Each structure stands twice: as structure tokens, then as C-alpha cells.
Amino acid sequence: MIRSLFATGGFKTPSLADAYDRAAATWHATISKFGFVEAYEDLLALAGRRLPAGNRHDLAVLDAGSGTAAFSLAFGRQFKSRRFDLLDVSPEMLQEGAQILAAEGFASRLLCCDIRSLAEAPKRYDVILSAHLIEHIDDIDAALSAFRSALRPGGTLVLVVSKPHWCTTLVRMRWGHRAYRPADMQAHLRANGFEAIETYSFPAGPPRRLSAGYITQTQS
Ligand SMILES: C[S@@+](CC[C@H](N)C(=O)[O-])C[C@H]1O[C@@H](n2cnc3c(N)ncnc32)[C@H](O)[C@@H]1O
């Protein structure tokens, strides 16, 4: 069952949620075909050294703008985490994501709400994963500040964000999202209290052309 854990705070974006609802049934197959699941696995391999040592089964992990949970799936395969909080405005994406995770033995709690309501969340996540969400948010600093609020001190944020490229321009015609140059993303992250920012260039395929990865942390 989908729970609306946090207040939505009037930030609902129904038309975008509807569009993603309609895309949900084929989303995972599409992004797998374009190499995004492997790309997320490569990025997370690099992020591993930022995670607490020892048993990682019980880390509190949030996948923000989870879609069908590809980022969580990559994380679970790599670090054997058992459960994930999936947050998205699209109920259909959340349902698909829960099924995809369950098929590999991972549990999930579904939070159907806008990312900005995380600003009201307690600082409790060890890790926040977020792929291709931030580009949909009008105020990127509000979203990054919400991430910081939801992370415990020393918590890790792993982001994947669209970057300027002619391929991004084509995809944007469908989804209307923004793109950020890595230098600008780093500045936004610093301005919102993140430190030790590492930028990752995907080596191949559509992820190389469309996206950049970022691994960063809040102050301990
Ligand atoms: C481009 S998809 C990425 C999905 C997934 N992270 C992936 O990499 O496959 C963006 C997702 O963000 C969700 N989303 C867009 N705006 C949102 C918001 N304000 N709050 C929460 N989720 C949002 C959409 O419903 C969609 O599932």
C-alpha cells in the first residue's frame, strides 16, 4: 500500500505525475535497454567508500524520485541492503518499483509525495539516492536543502542529473526538464551545505551523453 508519509505542502505536480503514471509500465525496460541500470551500478561502486563500514544491510536508504526503483535495485545488488523508502509523485511508478524490488528480494515502503515535503522530515537517512529528479524541480536549492534536512549528519547523497548535450535537448522535448553543467551543480551542492563533492562521468552509451553523477556528504 502506498503511504503519504509527509504532508504534501501544496507542491503537487499532477500533470507530470500523470505523465509518469502513463510511462510506468515500460519505464524499467526502457532505461535498462539504454544502460542506466549498469550506469547506476558503476556510480554506486565508487560511492561505496563513503558508506559506513561493516554491515550495510540495515542502512536507511531513500530513493527520491524513484520512478521504478532502478537506483535502489543497483544499490541493493551492490550493498545487500534489505529495504528502501521509495518516494515519488507517481503512484504507478511506485507500484512498479515495489514489484521490481520484490522480485529480487528487497522490501520497500512507498511514499507518494513531493520531494519538497522532505524538508519537514527528521534527519534520519544514511543515504539518499536520486536519479533524474532534480531537473524537474523549479527551485533546485529547495530540493537540495530538503535532501540535507532528511540526511543524518555525515549522510551520503548520490545524485544523477541531466547535463547539457544535444541528446538532452531531444529528451527534454518529451519531459520538459532542465539540465545542469557539472560546475553549476557543484556550486548548488556547496551552497546547500554539502561537502566532499565528487563528480562522475559515465563512460559509455546514453548515460555518458545525458547525465553526470555526483557523490557528496553532509557535515558529520
Ligand atoms: C526521469 S524519472 C527518473 C526515475 C528514476 N529515478 C530513474 O532513474 O529511472 C523522474 C521521476 O521523478 C518523479 N518526480 C518528478 N517530480 C517530482 C517531485 N516534485 N517529487 C517527487 N517525485 C517527482 C517522477 O514522477 C518520475 O518518476
Question: What can you tell me about this protein's structure?
Answer:
This protein is an alpha/beta fold. The protein has a single domain, classed as Vaccinia Virus protein VP39 (Rossmann fold). It is built from eight helices and eight strands. It has an eight-stranded mixed β-sheet with strand order 1-4-3-2-5-6-8-7, sandwiched between helices. β3, α4 and β4 form a beta-alpha-beta unit. α2 packs across α3. The N and C termini lie far apart (35 Å). The relative contact order is 0.16. S-adenosylmethionine binds next to α1, α3 and β3.
Key words describing this protein structure:
8-stranded mixed sheet, Rossmann fold, single chain, globular, 8 strands, 220 residues, alpha/beta, binds S-adenosylmethionine, 8 helices
Mean pLDDT: 89
Tell me the series of helices and strands, N- to C-terminal.
EHHEHEHEEHEHHEHE
Rounded radius of gyration (Å): 16 Å
Walk across the major sheet and give the strand order: 1-4-3-2-5-6-8-7
Shape type: globular
Parts with pLDDT < 50 across at least 5 consecutive residues: 4-13
Topology, number of strands: 8
State the end-to-end distance: 35 Å
**Which structural class do you get from the secondary structure elements?**
alpha/beta
CATH hierarchy class name: Alpha Beta
The CATH topology assignment is: Rossmann fold
- The CATH architecture designation is 3-Layer(aba) Sandwich
Give the helix proportion (percent range): 40-55%
For the biggest sheet, the summary is: 8 strands, mixed
The CATH fourth-level homologous superfamily: Vaccinia Virus protein VP39
As for the number of domains, it is: 1
